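Exercise 7. Given the encoded structure of a 427-residue chain, write a plausible sequence.
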């Protein structure tokens, strides 16, 4: 470019960057979006995941299943943990959390080295223009990758990788190097075997398992053989074992057989994904509702309590396991222990309506009427706070749910207490 054209291009670029900064400022200064600063909290939570397992990471694709342990409160809504995140909103952070910090640093170093090579040795003529353009494109992707999970959009990342590889090849004028025939055959055979293994184990079998699982879910109870086939084709997917456990419970009356099969499947799912709180919670539910009755063994209550505690530990920002265990203990007549768990659940979500309803009922059962009245006043305050609130997630819907049966029983009991006084004033 001539000097004047270069100066004009630099001026246009500066204007574009200034406009970008200005519009970002407007986005944060004038927007009424309550979550406009939430990305900072998401980055902090993702860094916590990296600190947990810095070398090997949580495992590919595991970040969405770890958010229950690292979620953060939002005090702008009645439900504090009503929103969760499924990615780190930063490609490097997501990569570091799932595959380890060394892997993320290697990817970053490789891309930066490729960009530097394209800048320093762009080639000649059109090849030079294409190389510099590819370097600029890759730099733009790196910048966007700091605030977005680009790996969730393969069309972008694969296109950039193909362009980068092509530009590097043309810039450095790579040529095939002659190698001994036997060595070349060995390398080719190794690559073919590796590619076949990846194609079968990493692509074909999971895909066929997914197809079988979709067919099983669509068929309902008749799809149990298809779900077993899915678990055989892809035995490392814990969701298929979860579905088999649910199918065993729903396909027959609760008894030793369905109980044992469901527990084995849930144990396998728990082994495959040890940080997922759903599996110990389901196992606790199975123990609480069936273990003691099926085996006539009171010690199963202790096993259920341990599993509930594990579920609560794996999901420290979710009060639902504590409420479920509190209800189980209340059914066994252990009201004081149940109240302690309810207090913990209400510390996480002060407007957890079903927890407040159960607290009032338990206090009345214990004859602590003064505390019951205060708890009922807190319940009414929660009703006022949640009035007009529109849940934006399944979790928020459960936390703000009315609990119609429990509420109706509580209101009937309170009305029964008030009825004699009202009837006495009429005579």
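Solution.
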């Amino acid at each position: 470019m001539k000097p004047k054209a270069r100066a004009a291009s630099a001026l246009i670029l500066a204007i574009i960057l200034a406009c970008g900064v200005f519009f970002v400022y407007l986005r944060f200064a004038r927007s009424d979006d309550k979550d406009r600063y939430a990305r900072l909290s998401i980055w902090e939570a993702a860094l916590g995941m990296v600190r947990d397992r810095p070398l090997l990471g949580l495992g590919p694709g595991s970040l969405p299943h770890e958010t229950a342990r690292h979620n953060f409160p939002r005090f702008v809504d009645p439900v504090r943990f009503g929103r969760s995140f499924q990615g780190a909103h930063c490609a490097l952070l997501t990569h570091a959390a799932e595959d380890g910090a060394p892997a993320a640093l290697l990817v970053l170093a490789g891309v930066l080295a490729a960009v530097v090579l394209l800048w320093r040795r762009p080639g000649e003529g059109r090849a030079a223009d294409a190389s510099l353009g590819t370097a600029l494109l890759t730099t733009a992707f790196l910048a966007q990758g700091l605030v977005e999970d680009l790996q969730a959009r393969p069309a972008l990342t694969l296109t950039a990788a193909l362009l980068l590889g092509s530009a590097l090849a043309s810039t450095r004028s790579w040529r095939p190097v002659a190698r001994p025939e036997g060595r070349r055959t060995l390398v080719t055979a190794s690559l073919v075997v590796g590619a076949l293994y990846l194609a079968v184990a990493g692509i074909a079998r999971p895909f066929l398992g997914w197809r079988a699982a979709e067919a099983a879910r669509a068929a309902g109870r008749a799809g149990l053989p298809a779900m077993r086939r899915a678990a055989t084709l892809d035995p490392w997917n814990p969701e298929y074992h979860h579905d088999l456990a649910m199918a065993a419970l729903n396909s027959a009356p609760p008894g030793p057989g369905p109980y044992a099969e469901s527990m084995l499947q849930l144990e396998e799912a728990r082994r495959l994904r040890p940080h997922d709180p759903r599996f110990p919670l389901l196992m606790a539910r199975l123990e609480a509702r069936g273990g003691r009755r099926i085996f006539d063994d009171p010690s199963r209550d202790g096993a259920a309590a341990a599993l509930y505690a594990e579920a609560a530990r794996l999901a420290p920002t979710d009060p639902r396991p504590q409420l479920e265990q509190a209800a189980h203990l209340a059914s066994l007549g252990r009201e004081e222990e149940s109240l302690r768990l309810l207090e913990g659940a209400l510390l996480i979500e002060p407007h957890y309506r079903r927890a407040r309803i159960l607290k009032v009922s338990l206090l009345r059962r214990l004859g602590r009427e003064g505390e019951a009245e205060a708890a009922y006043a807190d319940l009414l305050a929660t009703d006022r706070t949640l009035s007009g609130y529109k849940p934006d997630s399944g979790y928020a819907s459960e936390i703000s749910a009315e609990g119609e049966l429990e509420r109706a029983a509580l209101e009937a009991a309170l009305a029964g207490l008030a009825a004699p006084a009202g009837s006495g004033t009429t005579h």
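Remark. Residues 181-219 form the longest helix (39 residues). Students should compare their own answers with the one above.
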